[in-house]
Amino acid sequence: MFRRSFLTAASATLAGCGLTPSPPSTESYPESPPNVLLSFEWVAEAAAVDVTFVRGNRVTAANTAELLVRSAESDRTTVWVSREHDAESEYPLTPGATLRHSLGETSGVRVVWAAPNGRKRSVLAAADRPTPTEREG
């Protein structure tokens, strides 16, 4: 008797479960920056910094509307790649790409990513200019 009631309960519980897979979700993934590792080389005599894309995901027009290098305390901006503005490079941006950004008197830089829809921005990397004693040491 227990066996019969168990099988009846199990069949009722599993009635909606089939082997047919459900269709893919129509929800989109949240927009997030590509995974990139950047290095910064300070060029004192040029008052600039060279930003190099060391490794990571390709930066494409599909995953990035714009990639900018900005001076921390000023309005100096260098557009690395962009779908809408003049830029120093073209898509896709791949490891090995380097950009020189003029610093002026600022003490640091930020690399800013803009989402493909342009509504979200994130800082991918930031670096502070070394002091003269740090450069000598």
Residues in helices, as a percent range: 10-25%
State the strand order across the main sheet: 4-3-6-7
- Mean pLDDT across every amino acid position: 84
Which percent band covers the strand fraction? 35-45%
Query: What is the string of SSEs from the N terminus onward?
Result: HEEEEEEEH
Largest sheet data: 4 strands, antiparallel
Q: End-to-end distance, in Å?
A: 85 Å
- As residue ranges, the low-confidence spans are none
Number of strands: 7
Keywords:
137 residues, 7 strands, 4-stranded antiparallel sheet, 12% helix, 2 helices, elongated, 3-stranded antiparallel sheet, 36% strand, mainly beta
Task: Summarize the structure in words.
This protein has 137 residues and is mainly beta. The model has no long low-confidence stretch (mean pLDDT 84). Strand 6 and strand 7 form a beta hairpin. It has helices at residues 2-13, 132-136; strands spanning 36-43, 48-56, 66-71, 77-82, 98-102, 108-114, 121-128. The protein is built from 2 helices and 7 strands, in the order αβββββββα. The strands form 2 sheets. It has a 4-stranded antiparallel sheet, with no helix packed on it. Strands 1-2-5 form a 3-stranded antiparallel sheet, with no helix packed on it.
